Amino acid sequence: MMENDNELIEVKIGALIMDPNTNTPIVVLKGIESETVLPIWVGAFEANAIALEIEKIVPQRPMTHDLLRNVIMECGLRASRVIVTDLLDNTFYASVELSDENDDLVTLDARPSDAIALALRLDCPIFVKQKVLDLSARSQQPEDDGKDTSTGVDEWPELIG
After folding, report:
1. What angle do CA 95, 96, 101 make, to 5 degrees?
2. For 42-63, how does the pLDDT look when each residue is reduced to its tens digit (9 = 90+)?
3. Total domain count for the chain?
4. Helix %, strand %, coil % for the chain, to 5?
């Protein structure tokens, strides 16, 4: 394991697009101070929750992420940050870091899509561990068995440029 594996790269949502091959939504995270691009495939409901918040559309009744934001705030917690922490077997992992009134850290395991939807509602920064970026880049490389597993990641910066 390299020393910089746990280095955190701050990102923002660069795009919310549909994968034309699978018709699955993709959240594209883009580095704030770097050329980092990280695509994360998400579910339709989570993509909708992210899109609603990006567009500042307020539903008539609180959706799940709105409810969770309200619970966090009513319990006196503050959102510190969201971190995409790992990539194992093509599954991304994330955590939501909250602080209580004594500045004690409360860390919650989350799916990245839920963590991102919550980060937008709590106005907190989103980070990705360097090791996740490295693992993602490696998984985009074609396999030696002749199968092309590339997902066209080189084309995405033009889409979100």
Report:
1. 140
2. 999 999 999 999 999 988 999 9
3. 1
4. 35, 35, 30
